[in-house]
Design brief:
- The chain is built from 6 helices and 13 strands.
- The chain has 228 residues and is α/β, with parallel strands linked by helices.
- It folds into 2 domains: 2-63, no CATH class; 70-227, Metalloproteases ("zincins"), catalytic domain (Zincin-like), CATH 3.30.2010.10.
- The strands form 4 sheets. The protein has a 4-stranded mixed sheet with strand order 1-2-4-3.
- Helix 4 (175-187) packs across helix 6.
Amino acid sequence: MTFYSPEFDRYIHINRKNKISRLSLKVCRVTGKISINASLYLPNLDIINFFNKNRSWISKQLSKCVVPKIVEKGLMLPVEGNCYEIVSNNNVSTIRFLESNKICLPKNIVNVGHAVQKFLIEYCRSIMTPFIIKKSNLFKKKIQKISFKDTKSRWGSCSSKGSIMLNWRLIMAPPSVYKYVIIHELSHLVHMNHGHRFWKLVGELHPNYMYDREWLSKNGHEIRKYIF
């Protein structure tokens, strides 16, 4: 279910589920999507009233939304915390890094965003996979699978069976940040929760994790704004 808000010039998305016991509101800082979670049987009027009572809060959240950036030639793109300019050159046959902080594409590339995304995912895999395997040895747990995705709400996950998933956009963050996320997920191999013992283990393996967690909290939306 959706309804249109002339005030915000967008549709409001209503998610109804049996297990939802109370109304909640969310504004995506990347897309500006407004969604309300509600019980399956809650009257529509109650949802509308809830929306109206929170219009000022919604307005503040929308003002914080980042401006999306289309990945194209000339754009400055962060990789491991450093900025790289996207350029093209007739003398290169494959996309690559140049020493002068540039990501260089062949001249015949048509879809720049797609090419850069593919390049970054492969680079992310080459950097993070060895680090994951090396650190997993500390836990004496076998990693069953490593995958890289573009998840909207999570930076990573770890299953009880040892499947590790990471958001490949982390390759745009400083190395200490993505290493923290890896240690965080690997620590779930021992503690499948976020209790005291879990954070103690994370702190032992990545002492500065609080700074990196704060960096993600403050800057994570920035690396989600790039449209490939």
